[in-house]
Amino acid sequence: MWQALGNMLGADLSRLLLGLVIILAFSQLNALFLVWLERKVAGHIQLRPGPKEVGPFGLLQTIVDGIKLVGKELITPRLADRKLFVLAPVLVFMPVLVGFMVLPFSPGLIIRDMNVGLLLIFAFSTFSVLAILAGGWASNNKYALLGAIRSVAQNVAYEIPLLLSVMAVVLTVNSLRLSDIVSAQHRVWFFMLQPVAALIYLICATAETNRAPFDIPEAESELVAGFHTEYSGMRFGLFFLAEYTNMFVVCAVATALFFGGWYGPFGFQLGIPGVVWFLLKTYFLLFVIMWVRWTFPRLRFDQLMNFSWKVMIPLSLANLVVTAAVIKLI
Amino acid sequence: MGYWSEMLEGGWSLVQGMRVTVRRLVQPVVTVQYPRKHLQPSPAYRGHTELKRFAETETHACIACGTCQRRCPSGVIKVQGVKSHAKSSKVATHYLIDYTRCSLCGLCVECCPTQTLKFSTQFALEGVSRWDGVIDLIERLEENKS
Q1: pTM of the model
Q2: Is the domain of A148 the same as that of A224?
Q3: Number of domains in chain A
Q4: Is A47 in Cβ contact with B24 (below 8 Å)?
Q5: Residues of chain B with pLDDT under 70
Q6: What is the mean pLDDT of residues A171-195?
């Protein structure tokens, strides 16, 4: 079949198509698993059991929830901007999928090993802010609009330190190709060389994905549900799916940039395939993000902005300058 | 120096917070899965009233004096008793309470001259009509015996 498809469409296109199908399937499964994991982690941190009724350990709970979401009515507010309102959930999900295209799961398991892979991921992940703004604006609801505005302000503030911290790694490797960046970490993972950049990246990534304690765009105690207040059914489901897939992409990029991608610690592979190492590390980072969410309260808006402009940006800039100087000297 | 010390202090407090939650994560779950497992209610729990069973007589000591009936602010108690012969003391044959309107004030328990009333620890009560809230304590005592 692979051959027939290759003959028909050409090897490149068929590879892309197959990759897209795998990505779509994986992102859904991943989101289902992550939602379950999140609820389990939240439960156990609060000394509750979490979901446990549907399926073994409640594993099928999220599937049941998904079916419920699909079955619900799609409500569009009367005075909403219909086109934008319908488009926003699609817009928010699409760029996240693009990010998957360049993720280096293992040396042979990259759908498209682009020489600007890193740039592509960040270019497209910024795109989802636009979708959130569109959704919040089109809803014609003050809470949604406030959430969208907050989201934009937050993402603008946190994109800068995020990219600056990533730049420090790019300077060290001298490449934007993700497989090159991982290959450079065969013995020493970059979080040992760049601890500040790694920390800044993780904090900013949490803010970028609108996760607690940076979840002011959807602060439910202030804004009902923020930008997705008016969304129901599977449209809301897409926002939800995009959030968890985005989390995965961000953590996978962190794994590739700072935690050695498909390599085991200190060059010891321990007979475990690269893709397993990669996923192990990514899911550990995802667990850390959940752990953070269920530990810290939400930041106030001014605290959030102060933290970015007064702490994160100067620190990441200093880190970048120091990195550049060290590289120049060596 | 305030900038750096604040950052360090703040960072340390974050680490401490994370330590608290990760300890909670591995601690055993405290939730009791209610319909499958039950907690023992505390002895001080106030369910509806119940007649005590005394070891000597192996039954209640209610003499159907009606003190509780008169004392009850909600008027939910009705007691009936009989004398087996003219000179014997009265013995209760029916002790009804309408639990749906009982305010659990406990005056009946306090005023009982033979101290045969107590609070039960019954908490899972359900019914489909108002009459399901009417409980015959003597019947209940008989049922519990068997």
Answers
A1: 0.79
A2: yes
A3: 2
A4: yes
A5: 1, 145-146
A6: 84
What single-letter amino acid sits at B51?
A: L
Chain A residues lying within 8 Å of B31, measured CB to CB: 47-49
| Residue B50 · residue B140 · CB < 8 Å | yes
In a shared domain, residues B70 and B124? yes
Single-letter amino acid, residue A320: L
- Domain boundary (A42, A71, A100) is at A71
**Quick one: CA dihedral A132, A216, A254, A169, positive or negative?**
positive
B109 in the same domain as B70 = yes
- Chain A residues lying within 8 Å of B29, measured CB to CB: 43-44, 47-49
**Where does the pLDDT of residue A194 fall: very low under 50, low under 70, confident under 90, or very high at 90 and above?**
confident
A48/B31 CB distance under 8 A: yes
Are A200 and A99 in the same domain? yes
Q: Is the pLDDT of residue A225 over 80?
A: no
Report pLDDT for B39: 84
By residue range, what is the domain housing residue B8?
A: 1-30
B7 contacts in A (CB within 8 Å)? Answer: 311
The answer to whether residues B101 and B57 belong to one domain is yes
Subunit contact B24:A291, Cβ cutoff 8 A: no
* Nearest-CA distance A283 → chain B (Å): 16
At residue A214, φ and ψ (nearest 5 deg) are -105, 35
List of chain B residues whose C-beta atoms are within 8 Å of the C-beta of residue A43: 29
